[in-house]
Amino acid sequence: MKKQSFILWISSIVIVFVISYINTITSDNYPITGTIGVEGKKVSYRFEKVYYGNGEYYFSVRSDFPDLTGKYFFKPKDDSVWTLRELVKDKFLLTGVLPKQKPEVILQYYAELIFDNKSINIPDNRIVQITYYGEIPIVVNLLQFFFLYGGLILAIRTGLESFNNNLKTKKFAVMFLIIFLTLNVLINPLYLSYKYGFINHSVPPIERLFSLSEILILLLWIITAIVLFNRPKFKYTSLSSAVITLIIFLLFS
C-alpha cells in the first residue's frame, strides 16, 4: 500500500511538472530566443516579453563574430516615434538597455546587427512587446510558487486516490482547500499588489487582487468536497475534478 501511495505521489508531481512546462512554453509571454549565422559565426539572442523589476531592463546578444556591432530601437506601444540607441559592445557581448517604466507599461523593441556594411534585424525581422511589472519580493514569490504548485500537486494526488479505493480522498480534499484558500485570500492579493505596483501607491480594485484560474479551481473543489462528504459512493468525483483542474490551469493561467 505504501509503495502504491508513493507511486501516486510521484505521478502527481510528474503530471503537474509536465502541464506547467507545456503551459510555460505555449504562453504568449514566453521569451523569443534564437541563433543565427553571421559570416559563419554563431549569434544568439533572447528577448523577454515580461520584466519584473523597478529598474532598467537589460538584454544581450552573444556572438563569436568579433566585428559585429549594432543598434536597437524601442518605443511605447501606442507611440509612433522610435528611439534609437547603440548596442554596447564588450568583447563578444552586445547589450541594450530599456528604460525603467511603471507597472503594466508596454514597450516595443528590436535590434539591428551590423557587419561588413550589411545589417540584419533580430529577432527574425519582428517587433517584440515587453510588459513591465513591479518587483516582487523573493519571499512573496516563493510563497506564491509553493502554495500554487503544492496545491496543484495535492489536487492531482486527491484525484489519483480514486485508484487507491479513496482511502484518503476526503482528507486530501480538505488539505487542498486549506492551501488554496490561503493562496487566494492571503498570498495572491499581496503578490498581485506588488506585481501591478499598488503597494504604497494606490488602493487596488478588488477584482485585480485575485487570479481567475485559481478562484475557479477553488470553487471547483469546494463543490467537489461537498459531493465527497454527501455522496461518497461517487468513486471518480475527485478524479474528474483533478482533470478539470488541469484544464482550467492550462486555459486560464
Describe the structure.
With 253 residues, the protein is of the alpha+beta class. It has two domains: 2-26 and 136-252, no CATH class; 32-133, Sandwich (Immunoglobulin-like). It is 43% helix and 26% strand. It has helices at residues 2-25, 138-160, 169-195, 212-230, 237-252, and strands at residues 32-38, 41-47, 50-52, 57-63, 69-76, 83-86, 88-90, 93-98, 106-115, 118-122, 128-133. Strands 3, 5, 6, 9, 10 and 11 form a six-stranded mixed sheet that branches.
Query: What is the ordering of alpha helices and beta strands?
Result: HEEEEEEEEEEEHHHH
Largest sheet: 6 strands, mixed
Oligomer: single chain
- Low-confidence regions: none
Q: Structural class of the secondary elements?
A: alpha+beta
What would the principal axes of the Cα set say about the shape? elongated
Q: How many structural domains?
A: 2
Helix content: 40-55%
- Average pLDDT reading: 92
Number of strands: 11
Radius of gyration: 23 Å
* Count of runs of 4 or more consecutive helical residues: 5
